[in-house]
Write a structure and sequence with these properties.
Blueprint lengths: L2 E5 L3 E8 L13 E7 L1 H11 L3 E8 L3 H11 L4 E7 L6 E8 L5 E6 L8 H6 L1 H6 L2 E5 L4 H13 L3 E5 L17 E2 L3 H8 L6 H13 L4 E5 L5 E5 L2 E5 L12 H14 L4 H15 L12 H5 L7
Parallel strand pairs: 1-4, 1-8, 2-6, 4-5, 8-9, 9-10, 10-11
Antiparallel strand pairs: 2-3, 6-7, 11-12, 12-13
Helix pairs in contact: 1-8, 6-7, 8-9
Length: 308
C-alpha cells in the first residue's frame, strides 16, 4: 500500500448541538456540547490511519495540552507524527461548531493559532517526507502560499496531488491548481473558486469545467445528500449518495477525501475509490464529532471494502 502524506491543520473542536441555528443577536439554549480532536488535515490523516492506510502528517500545534492530545490521537491510529511539532509561543488551533440537530448541518468558525505558522520552511524541513510519500493531500486551513509551494514540490517529485480547497478563497494565483491531480470542492467552495453561481446543476457543471480549465486533472464536487459530481477531460457524471439520516456532517468531506486517497493508495480505480469514500462518509455523518465519527475498518469490511 502506498503512503499518504497530509499537510494541514490540527484543531481542537468544540461542538454545540442546538435545535436550530441562532439568528443574529439571539441567545439560544443548546442541547449538548462535545470537545473532540479535529481539524481538516488531522481528521484526514486520522481517517487514513484508522482505516488501515499508511499515513503521515506535517503541521504545527501550540505549546499547550490540547496540542499534545491531538498528536497522541493521531499516533494512536498509526499516523507518522514526526512532522508535527509545537510552535513556540503559539496556541493550538481551535474550531467552534454549531450543529442543527434537525438536519445535522453545521456552521464552523475556526481560529488558526499554530496552523497559520505552517509555511514554506515547514515544507522544506520535511522534504524527505514528500520523497517517501506517494500521495500528497492538502486543504486550505493552512496558508494557501504553503499549499501552492507544497504542490509544486510534489509535482516536481512526481506525486499524486489531492487538494480539498476548504475554506475557499477567490482570486488565487492563476496557476494555483495547475497540475493538481484531484480537487474536491463542495458546491459553495466551487462558486467561490470559480466565480460561477452553483445553485443549479448547470452551474455546478460549468464550475467544474472552469476548474478543469484552471489546470485540475479531475474534479469531484461534493453535493451532500445528493452525492458528488465527477468531471475530467473525458467526461462527467453524477454519482448518487448513500441515503442515511445525518446527525453531524462535520467530518463528511474530510472522511470522504481521506478514504478516497486511501483507496487510491491501495491501487483501486477512481470509481472504486469514490464508492469507498461514500461508504465511509455515510457512516461518519451518523455520529457526532470529527475524528470520533470515523468508522472502524471492520464496519467497512462488512460492506465489502477490504484494502491491504
Amino acid at each position: 500500500m502506498k503512503k499518504v502524506l497530509v499537510i494541514g491543520c490540527l484543531n481542537m473542536d468544540y461542538s454545540v448541538t442546538a435545535s436550530r441555528f441562532p439568528k443574529p443577536g439571539e441567545t439560544l439554549l443548546g442541547e449538548s456540547v462535545k470537545i473532540s480532536a479535529g481539524g481538516k488535515g488531522a481528521t484526514q490523516a486520522y481517517t487514513v490511519g484508522k482505516l488501515g492506510g499508511r499515513a503521515a502528517m506535517i503541521g504545527y500545534v501550540g505549546e499547550d495540552f490540547q496540542g499534545q492530545q491531538l498528536i497522541d490521537n493521531l499516533a494512536s491510529v498509526g499516523v507518522d507524527v514526526s512532522g508535527v511539532s509545537a510552535y513556540p509561543g503559539e496556541v493550538t488551533g481551535q474550531a467552534f461548531i454549531t450543529i442543527d440537530s434537525s438536519s445535522g448541518q453545521n456552521h464552523i468558525v475556526a481560529v488558526g493559532g499554530a496552523n497559520a505558522r505552517v509555511d514554506r520552511r515547514a515544507v522544506d524541513d520535511h522534504r524527505a517526507m514528500f520523497e517517501e510519500a506517494d500521495i500528497i493531500l492538502m486543504q486550505h486551513e493552512i496558508p494557501v502560499d504553503t499549499v501552492y509551494y507544497a504542490k509544486e514540490l510534489a509535482l516536481e517529485l512526481g506525486k499524486t496531488v489531492i487538494i480539498d480547497p476548504g475554506p475557499a478563497f477567490p482570486d488565487l494565483r492563476e496557476d494555483f491548481f495547475r497540475g493538481v491531480t484531484y480537487a474536491k470542492p463542495n458546491e459553495t467552495e466551487l462558486a467561490i473558486l470559480t466565480g460561477i453561481n452553483t445553485d443549479t446543476m448547470e452551474g455546478i457543471e460549468k464550475g467544474a469545467a472552469r476548474m478543469l480549465e484552471m489546470g485540475v486533472e479531475h474534479v469531484i464536487v461534493s453535493l451532500g445528500g445528493r452525492g458528488c459530481y465527477v468531471a475530467d477531460r473525458s467526461g462527467s457524471r453524477l454519482i448518487e449518495a448513500i441515503p442515511v439520516k445525518a446527525v453531524d456532517t462535520t467530518a463528511a468531506g474530510d472522511s470522504f477525501i481521506a478514504a478516497f486517497a486511501l483507496a487510491l493508495s491501495a491501487g483501486r480505480s477512481e470509481d472504486e475509490a469514490i464508492a469507498y469514500a461514500q461508504a465511509v462518509a455515510s457512516i461518519s455523518v451518523t455520529r457526532k464529532g470529527a475524528q470520533a465519527s470515523i468508522p472502524e475498518p471492520e464496519e467497512l469490511a462488512a460492506k465489502g471494502f477490504v484494502f491491504s
